[in-house]
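Work Package 4 report. The design task specified in the project plan requires that, given a folded chain encoded as structure tokens, an amino acid be chosen for each position. We show below one input record used in the internal validation round.
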């Protein structure tokens, strides 16, 4: 996500990371993965306290 942020600051709509193009759609997917991961971690912590 940081690479895409830097590209946007330069006025670009996409960037390359590890030889692959990333764009706004890639960012949305990455944010969704992070949100799911956070939800799983919260659920695991809640279950561990019971």
């Amino acid at each position: 996500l940081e690479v895409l942020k830097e590209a946007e600051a330069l006025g670009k709509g996409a960037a390359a990371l590890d030889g692959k193009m990333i764009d706004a759609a890639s960012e949305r997917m990455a944010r969704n993965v992070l949100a799911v991961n956070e939800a799983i971690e919260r659920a695991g912590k809640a279950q561990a306290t019971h």
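The CA atoms of residues 13 and 23 lie 6 Å apart. Validation will be extended to a larger panel in the next phase.
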